[in-house]
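Reading a protein record of the kind used here takes only a little practice. An example makes this concrete, so a full record is given next.
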Amino acid sequence: MTNADPHELQKFSDLAHRWWDPNAEFKPLHELNPTRLNWIDSYAHLAGKRVLDVGCGGGILSESMAGLGANVKGIDLSPEALGVADLHSLESGVTVDYEEISAEPLAAREPASFDVVTCMEMLEHVPDPAGVVAACATLVKPGGWVFFSTLNRNVKSYMLAVIAAEYVAQMLPKGTHDYARFIRPSELAGFVRQAGLSLAEIRGVTYNPLTRRYALSNDSSVNYMVACQREA
């Protein structure tokens, strides 16, 4: 069985043609990308590394990592999103290898093949997030880095990430997130340890609506990112 929710896939496929519009539904990803890219690069030193972006969507993070000199492969299960990613790669001249496949079968095919694995803003959209974490741990080389980002599960995150972002400010389309699938940092840390990764850091991500900028924070109550390393 594929570790994917058909409803979630369709939701993002329907919006795929708007992925690279910085003022459309994926505007938050465009605004967040510099912060997450710099944070990932501060650990992984991306230039010259073989990198896998799991759940790459239209390729915003994939292209930006390739722009720093990484050899990037992006995988996703939405052919519409991958089509947009391929087209934008051709237009921008930034080369990324895209494939329609999920993390688990790729892990069986290419274990310990990547220096860096990223899986950002995806775990809260799949039925079995622990399975994705385990696949990412299998895909990375010993000593390599794995990065995740997701949403905490509590009243504050529900109010800000769902009610405020989707219904009040309309920063995201209604129904983007299912609160029941949000993941507490302690739960993700458990998935990470179970997969044989060591947890290096958990950083919160905050958003300033006045400056429209994201920033790293010690507050992981809503959005947060996790840096992990596979033991050498």
Residues 27-44 form the longest helix (18 residues). The chain has a mean pLDDT of 93. The helical segments are 6-14, 27-44, 60-67, 79-92, 103-109, 129-139, 155-168, 185-194. Strands lie at 50-54, 71-76, 97-100, 114-120, 140-151, 197-208, 213-217, 223-230.
